[in-house]
Specification:
This protein is an alpha/beta fold. The chain contains 13 helices and eleven strands. The strands form two sheets. The protein has an eight-stranded parallel beta sheet. Strands 8-9-11 form a three-stranded antiparallel beta sheet, with no helix packed on it.
């Protein structure tokens, strides 16, 4: 069932719609906000896999972080309008003024040559950034590859490239977090990181992405927590369909993830790990695991493993409609985005003690 405009407007406090949402109180929040939490604004109706965040400049993202009471911002490379030293110094001064710690999300192309990596590090250092997030695959494994050989070649390319770049990465103070971005199973990503064995290369741990690869959250957590560098904090909800299930980001505490337990586990491995909220406001993601196409680049799990996933995850469908933006007017899409982020920040402060 789609969340209609009428139902959405009924769920939003009147004061928030009338006056905007500013929740940065005297205590603020220990969370930072990933640029993708404002996908409606940055994409302006475009597909998130076919666009960049440039429509929402870094300065506008920082405005939103202050408005929602965040402790920091994860800025995308495309949001930086100028890499001129004076422009970067001004951006850092702005962040310092509002006590915002900055992270960067950088394209995988930064890992393709020493020159590209060095240029990225110069920008990171100018902004006071100590770790960056990288998605090796800007897509989804079960959609991006047409054959198993394509996946194997892609994985082999990056395994070799990261080994080549390892001494370059280790020559700089910036730490790289490779996101589990609907590409590698957690065991595959952990094996890659074990082979690299580098203190400068770890994981940007996304709390929910590997549900799309039929992994139970506890498995993903236990496998990747030792490598955590930074995070994409989120909660997820599911709705079974004829071909598989729908998967959506939902406000923290309204989904199926054991967030407090997951955060505690991550902090046992890195006590200062940032909690960077990624509340993507969009239509639900389709995960058609009951189709043959889904399995082209994946091994089918043992029947008992699939049954366990269905029992532990898909047997807990959301009691509420999953968020949708299709059918909402642009202003209502932004209002929905604001409301979902606001609820996440409130839950993070009050319940998760972030």
């Amino acid at each position: 069932m789609t969340l209609t405009r009428r139902a959405f407007l009924a769920s939003v406090p009147a004061a928030a719609l009338a006056a905007g949402i500013r929740v940065r109180g005297e205590e603020g929040s220990g969370m930072c906000l990933a640029y993708t939490s404002f996908a409606v604004r940055m994409l302006q109706g475009r597909d998130i896999l076919k666009s960049t965040a440039a429509a929402l400049p870094a300065s506008a993202l920082l405005d939103l972080c202050v408005r929602f009471g965040a402790h920091g911002a994860q800025i995308d490379w495309s949001q930086i309008e100028s890499h001129d030293p004076a422009a970067l110094a001004a951006l850092k001064a702005r962040a310092d003024r509002d006590r915002l710690k900055l992270e960067l999300s950088v394209p995988a192309s930064c890992l393709e040559s020493p020159q590209a990596y060095g240029d990225m590090v110069k920008t990171a250092m100018a902004l006071g950034v100590t770790h960056v997030r990288v998605a090796l695959l800007y897509g989804r494994r079960y959609e991006s590859f047409k054959t198993r050989d394509e996946w194997t070649a892609w994985h082999a390319k990056w395994a070799a490239q990261l080994q080549t770049m390892k001494p370059v990465i280790e020559a700089h103070p910036v730490v790289v977090g490779l996101e589990n971005h609907k590409d590698h199973l957690s065991t595959e990503l952990a094996a890659l990181l074990h082979s690299l064995n580098s203190p400068r290369i770890g994981v940007c741990f996304d709390f929910g992405n590997n549900l799309s690869l039929l992994e139970e959250p506890q498995q993903t957590l236990e496998t990747l927590a030792p490598f955590v560098v930074t995070t994409h904090l989120k909660d997820m909800a599911v709705k079974p369909t004829a071909d598989g299930f729908e998967l959506s980001e939902v406000p923290l505490g309204e989904g199926i993830l054991p967030l407090a337990e997951m955060i505690a586990t991550l902090r046992t491995h890195r006590p200062d790990v940032p909690m960077c909220l990624e509340m993507l406001t969009r239509d639900p993601l389709q995960v058609p695991y009951k189709t043959d196409r889904y399995w082209i680049a994946l091994d089918r799990p043992a029947p008992e493993a699939l049954a366990a996933f269905e029992h532990h995850v898909l047997s807990r469908p959301s009691p509420n409609p999953l968020p949708h933006i299709t059918g909402l007017a642009p202003a209502d899409q932004i209002a929905l985005e604001d409301e979902l982020v606001r609820r996440c920040m409130e839950y993070g402060r009050r319940t998760l003690q972030l």
